[in-house]
């Protein structure tokens, strides 16, 4: 088919490619036809040609190879427009072969099946096989490619699980060097804070932030980003909670790197009286949970060896084995009222966040009597991240969950939360948290799979006040669809997911948002070969 446009642009002529003397002429009178109109004409003709091609291809598959008249075309289009369907003439044997279970087909043909679609087409053209042979070879090829894709995907998930669950040697090096500094350098053993600033730790006129972590570099980034972006840093009290083994290196880092004028407190869990006396529910729950998981799941090897489950299910189970979900640092937030009995309000931060704005306005938010100020994750422009409801975390096929909760209820996020401790002390949130942990253990861990958010959703049910999404952008650790400009526009960004910014698997376009708060010229940082990329 040829297209001819007259020099005056007054006629557009479409000439058939073969043997037709007729032509179609579009008259436009005395007005010149604009180039835009010419473009639309071309676009329409292209669409028409493709439409006819598709119909012809369908006719060929169904056995009608001669369909070059308008009558035939009408015969094919008419029933479809009217909602009717012509009976297909595709050989029934093709459907039979494709619908058979894989075990009943000729599996041995997979080793001889084509490796690509182009090879398959070439083989079909050369061999001209019958319908059954065509279907068998097609199914063998697709099944083989599907198995290879599944295996590769599972291997990717396994490698990511191993990487995200491990401690990079650079961070391990930093911990060891700081432990050495703590034991040999008196400046690394300073009391934090200094005695004259201790009263500020219980003074509610300050802005109190809490971080629980055993990752020294991550804690430093959170503190640095918080202080640098705060309008009145002298009013910050930053409470860092860590475990016994990390306490000395953590104290050494913040002793050698003061954040003046902000006030920094570093405490180990063993420094809290209530934690060292009697039974602590969080410890009992963690021990039982860890033991049950090891028996129930059989470890990563058993998970990966499963040949029937989908890769995404396997990925979720691998993620559930992550050490952070059994870390005391991840559970300790449920004890904030006991940890800080004199404080009225705190902002709790995860160690994989970066602060990019002044957070003092969080204290001006009216919580309406609620306990937990959090960003909801069921609405937003990013449908991949902001589409989480209770059904995303809880198992509603279990009658105990189905009886008490609504699957469509909006979920919310940990990572940057405002906690009204006064209101919290008037509730039974902590008791509810442990009650449901026990129910999950009794149900063979079938109520939910991942970590502390599911029991948190249950415990804080009815006690959550939704805050503006500006204050907490999620997903920077498990999907790279977020652009740099979008991330830079958020008040707090959260690298939740496996691709933590301190790991090699971090998304390269997002990692600079975290590394900008690391001083790579620092002696300890350089000695452990910690680099920006």
Automatic annotation (TrEMBL):
It comes from Anisodus acutangulus. Keywords: Cell wall biogenesis/degradation, Glycosyltransferase, Golgi apparatus, Membrane, Transferase, Transmembrane, Transmembrane helix. Its EC number is 2.4.1.-. This is Hexosyltransferase. It is found in: Golgi apparatus membrane. Its main location: Golgi. Belongs to the glycosyltransferase 8 family. PANTHER family: GALACTURONOSYLTRANSFERASE 12-RELATED, GALACTURONOSYLTRANSFERASE 4-RELATED. The lineage of its organism: Eukaryota, Viridiplantae, Streptophyta, Embryophyta, Tracheophyta. GO terms for molecular function: polygalacturonate 4-alpha-galacturonosyltransferase activity. It is a single-pass type II membrane protein.
């Amino acid at each position: 088919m040829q297209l001819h446009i007259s020099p005056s642009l007054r006629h557009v002529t479409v000439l058939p490619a073969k043997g037709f003397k007729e032509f179609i002429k579009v008259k436009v009178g005395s007005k010149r036809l604009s180039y835009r109109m010419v473009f639309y004409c071309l676009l329409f003709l292209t669409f028409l040609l493709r439409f006819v091609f598709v119909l012809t291809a369908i006719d060929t598959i169904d056995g009608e190879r001669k369909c070059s008249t308008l009558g035939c075309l009408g015969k094919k289009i008419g029933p479809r427009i009217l909602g009717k369907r012509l009976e297909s003439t595709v050989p029934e044997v093709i459907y039979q072969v494709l619908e058979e279970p894989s075990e009943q087909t000729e599996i041995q043909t997979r080793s001889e099946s084509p490796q690509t679609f182009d090879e398959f087409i070439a083989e079909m053209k050369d061999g001209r096989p019958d319908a059954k042979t065509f279907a068998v070879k097609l199914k063998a090829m697709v099944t083989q490619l599907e198995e290879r894709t599944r295996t590769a995907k599972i291997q990717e998930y396994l490698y990511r699980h191993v990487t995200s669950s491990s401690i990079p040697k650079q961070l391990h090096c930093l911990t060891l060097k700081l432990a050495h500094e703590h034991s040999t350098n008196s400046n690394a053993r300073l009391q934090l804070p200094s005695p004259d600033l201790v009263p500020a730790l219980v003074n509610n006129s300050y802005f109190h932030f809490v971080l629980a972590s055993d990752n020294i570099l991550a804690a430093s980034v959170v503190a640095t980003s918080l202080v640098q972006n705060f309008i009145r840093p002298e009013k910050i009290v930053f409470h860092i909670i860590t475990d016994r083994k990390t306490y000395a290196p953590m104290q050494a880092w913040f002793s050698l790197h003061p954040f003046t004028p902000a006030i920094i407190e570093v405490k180990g869990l063993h420094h809290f009286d209530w934690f060292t006396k009697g039974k602590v529910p969080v410890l009992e729950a963690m021990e039982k949970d860890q033991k049950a998981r090891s028996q129930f799941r059989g470890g990563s090897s058993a998970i990966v060896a499963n040949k029937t489950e989908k890769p995404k299910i396997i990925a979720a189970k691998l993620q559930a084995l992550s050490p952070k979900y059994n870390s005391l640092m991840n559970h300790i937030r449920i004890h904030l009222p006991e940890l800080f009995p004199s404080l009225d309000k705190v902002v709790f931060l995860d160690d994989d966040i970066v602060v990019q704005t002044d957070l003092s306005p969080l204290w001006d938010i009216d919580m309406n009597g609620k306990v937990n100020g959090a960003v909801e994750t069921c609405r937003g422009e990013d449908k991949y991240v902001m589409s989480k409801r209770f059904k995303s975390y809880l198992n509603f096929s279990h009658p105990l969950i189905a009886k008490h909760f609504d699957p469509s209820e909006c979920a919310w996020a940990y990572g940057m939360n405002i906690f009204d401790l006064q209101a919290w002390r008037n509730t039974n949130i902590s008791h509810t948290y442990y009650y449901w942990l026990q129910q999950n253990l009794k149900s063979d861990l079938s109520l939910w799979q991942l970590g502390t958010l599911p029991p948190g959703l249950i415990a804080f049910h009815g006690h959550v006040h939704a805050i503006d999404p500006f204050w907490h952008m999620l997903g920077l650790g498990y999907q790279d669809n977020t652009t740099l400009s979008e991330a830079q526009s958020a008040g707090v960004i959260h690298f939740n997911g496996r691709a933590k910014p301190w790991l090699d698997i971090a998304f390269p376009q997002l990692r600079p948002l975290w590394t900008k708060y690391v001083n790579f010229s620092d002696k300890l940082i350089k000695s452990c070969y910690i680099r920006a990329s």
